[in-house]
Amino acid sequence: MSEHGGSHLTRIPAPEGVSPGTGYSHVVWGTGRFVAVSGQCAFDEKGEIVGEGDPAAQARQVFENLRRCLAAAGAGFDDVVKLTYFVTDIAHLPAVREARDAVIAADRLPASSAVQVAALFRPELLLEIEAFAVLPD
Q1: Distance between CA atoms of residues 96 and 85, nearest Å
Q2: d(Cα 47, Cα 59) in Å, to the nearest integer?
Q3: Which phi and psi (to 5°) does residue 134 adopt?
Q4: pTM attached to this predicted model
Q5: How far apart are alpha carbons 61 and 70 in whole angstroms?
Q6: What CA–CA distance (Å, rounded) separates 27 from 13?
Q7: DSSP string covering 46-79, please?
Q8: Over the range 32-42, which residues count as b (16 or more CB within 10 Å of their CB) and which as e?
């Protein structure tokens, strides 16, 4: 069990009897104010797609959008307790993990789910990521 991002969050990478995950914590809990960030896609501030056909460029833009949304609530990536990844091809996950690892420390990994979907709402989009965070009171 580890506490990071302030004493308001506790992360358990692998509970007893559960195989350790790669790149996520199995359990994260906290006390404080809950923040939900809608799924973010690779749009810039003008609404134009960044990195068409490039999962790495799209992932970097998505994490930048998540950073901005979290900041609007007074939160940061250290406060994130859950990420959900929606990808049009599971082969995009290494690019997503690389972008995530650039902004989230290895000892502060949130709980995560990854889902391959048939399509997103625009055919040029390769991934969407939503976040849940908990801020200290």
Answers
A1: 9
A2: 16
A3: -130, 125
A4: 0.92
A5: 14
A6: 7
A7: TSPBSSTT-HHHHHHHHHHHHHHHHHHTT--GGG
A8: eeebebebbbb
**pLDDT per position as a tens digit, 25-79:** 999 999 999 999 999 999 999 999 999 999 999 999 999 999 999 999 999 999 9
Helix (H) or strand (E) holding 94: helix 93-101
The answer to whether 83 and 109 are in contact (CB under 8 A) is no
Question: Whole-angstrom Cα distance, residue 77 to residue 57?
Answer: 19
Whether the CB-CB separation of 71 and 134 falls below 8 Å is answered with no
DSSP, res 43: B
Residue 100: strand, helix, or coil? helix
Query: From CA 63, how far away is CA 115, in angstroms rounded?
Result: 17
